[in-house]
Amino acid sequence: MAERTSQVIGQSGAFLDALERASRAAALDRPVLVIGERGTGKELVAERLHRLSPRWDQPLVVMNCAALPETLIEAELFGHESGAFTGATKARVGRFEEADGGTLFLDELGTLSMGAQERLLRAVEYGEVTRIGASRPIRVDVRIVAATNEHLPDKVDRNEFRADLLDRLSFEVVTLPPLRARKSDILILADHFGRRMAAEMGWERWHGFSPAAQDALREYRWPGNVRELRNVVERAVYRWERDGPIEAIEFDPFQSPYRPGNSAAPQQQQPAPAMPRPPQPAPTSDGDEVAACDVGPSDFKSRVALFEKELLSRALAENRFNQRATADALGLSYDQLRHALRRHDLIGAVA
Fold it and tell me: Mean pLDDT over all residues of the chain?
């Protein structure tokens, strides 16, 4: 039986619309198909469908169809008798029997083989399953909730998914929006995960994220959706060693100048950050440029300072505002970089 501690969090219109559709379908004893990219919370919605249904006090059984080899999926779903195949030393009930009276959540539905789809269709249509190696069917009362990150009608067109099974399972279809379509939820989720991680780390106070870090979180595309956001936030919290709002956000934990290359094609060394061009002398009223020898000491110092600030700004941007990566790219220690950023009032620009 599934046990979950995660919460469904969000206030964006697209997300609330999907939750509302799932909540309305929960009371009906019909199959529901949950569609969404990886990390969008499909399993949490499946649990919501179960908890709000009349079957809430019965088992919620979860099966990831992609986690098992094709040869074992049918045995997992429908069970088997002793001696039904090599290694079947004793009889075993399948997931349908385990979920009898409750809900069976089939994740990664699109990976099922055509043979398993055919037997699943019969189980859904007639409420009967036959263990592998058995001759008599067993009656089961199971509500099916399935999930996938694929567009199943396309698989039907390619003869990779049964049209009749899709028709049977798609009484209601709940499509979850990706996180990039829920921008108003990003900081809410980040704050939730950050507070929880800070408590786990024993922090006395949660200071949140700096404005620049918040901007970086909002603007990132989040291909891994909520799951990726949780990882990024928790990593930022545990790496932050100062008191105050978190300023450093690392989106790619694999980014490193020492990243191993492909043995077949050695990794090319990354080019150094482009050097910003120094400010050009301003033209005189006659259109002629001021000669460099005419520049006074104060002008020289201000131009060097401007050049250094532009160099730091560009290096930060090219390294996704990761301070340690920026320090490595510029050949500085972390403390040297931090000192330079403070000198040029760039700390607030670091995320």
Answer: 84
CB proximity list for 344: less than 8 A, separation 6 or greater: 305, 308, 309, 312
State pTM to two decimals.
0.70
Largest CA distance in the chain: 102
Cβ neighbourhood burial of 246 (10 Å; 0-12, 13-18, 19+): buried
Report which DSSP code applies to 266.
Answer: P
Inter-helix orientation angle 297-318/334-343, to 10°: 120
What is the Cα–Cα distance from 83 to 192, expressed in whole angstroms? Answer: 51
Question: What Å distances lie between residue 316 and 202, 337, 351, CA to CA?
Answer: 31, 10, 9
**Hey, what long-range contacts does 75-79 have (CB within 8 A, 24 or more apart)?**
75/132, 77/116, 77/119, 77/120, 77/123, 77/129, 78/119, 78/123, 78/129, 78/130, 78/131, 78/132, 79/129, 79/131, 79/132
The C-alpha atoms of residue 236 and residue 247 are separated, in whole angstroms, by: 9
Q: How far is CA 340 from the centre of its chain?
A: 35
Separation between Cα atoms, residue 252 and residue 249, nearest integer Å: 9
* 276/246 Cα distance (integer angstroms): 29
Instruction: Between 27 and 314, name the one with better pLDDT.
Output: 27
Q: Which of 44-58, 153-167, 232-246, 289-303 is predicted least confidently? A: 289-303
